[in-house]
Give the backbone structure.
Amino acid sequence: EPTLYVVATPIGNLGDMVPRAVETLQTVQLIAAEDTRHSAKLLEHFHIKTPLLAYHDHSDSKRTQYLIDKLLAGESIALISDAGTPLVSDPGYQLVAAAQAAGVRVVPIPGACALIAALAASGLASDRFSFEGFLPAKQVARQKRLAELVSNTGTVIFYEAPHRILESLQDLVVVFGADRPVVVARELTKTFETFLTGSAADVLAKVTADSNQQRGEIVLLVQGAPKSEAASLDTESTRIMALLAAELP
Ligand code: SAM
């Protein structure tokens, strides 16, 4: 049966490529990749010779339809992104939704995902968590987003760019308070993998003091609000949001 496979690839350590991912990429007729030049290196490493085609969510709907037509004609296609699990802060949603709508079988090949790896080793509560993707780049919008999350009782997880980690930690201290436990998980599965843990103020001080901590790939995790304090934090976040709303255009 023609199938769209959604295939996870490593987030730094090629040893994390699962055998089923290699087999799938070898046997499909076509691999749709976020960046074909980037993925060509991965395929070369695993001796995979399947043709690559560029696919991202900005691809016009013609590209999506082209892939759906191929699937309906009986070909199987694998979707990969530059790293980790497609669709997680990565392209693929349009294609998967279109495939589901067209009645095409969609099969996930699970593997690395930075937010799950970070959570699993962070020491923060993992029974409930929310993934918030990347924070806004501008400070007012970023503080507003943080204020919306301040009373969340589950662990909150963000992806962060290295050149913005200091500003985001500063905003965390302002909005969540200096004492809220925070983890910076950096360079997961790679040589310089690091977990910085402590209060928001502690972690901010560590990252400020060591510029190496402002490099590489970063997942930022924040412990949830204590249930007993969630209600009063809600009042506080309403206050912060009102202040921020006054600043927004
Ligand atoms: N689809 C990917 C996944 O499953 O994790 C995420 C893609 S997103 C465009 C890239 C972001 O993921 C990076 O900016 C960083 O925040 C996070 N990330 C990816 N690889 C990482 C790693 N090895 N260590 C820490 N964070 C990583």
Notes: Residues 11-12, 81, 83-85, 88-90, 113-115, 159-161, 185-190, 217-219 surround S-adenosylmethionine (CB under 6 Å). DSSP finds nine helices and ten strands in the chain. The first helix runs from residue 19 to 27.
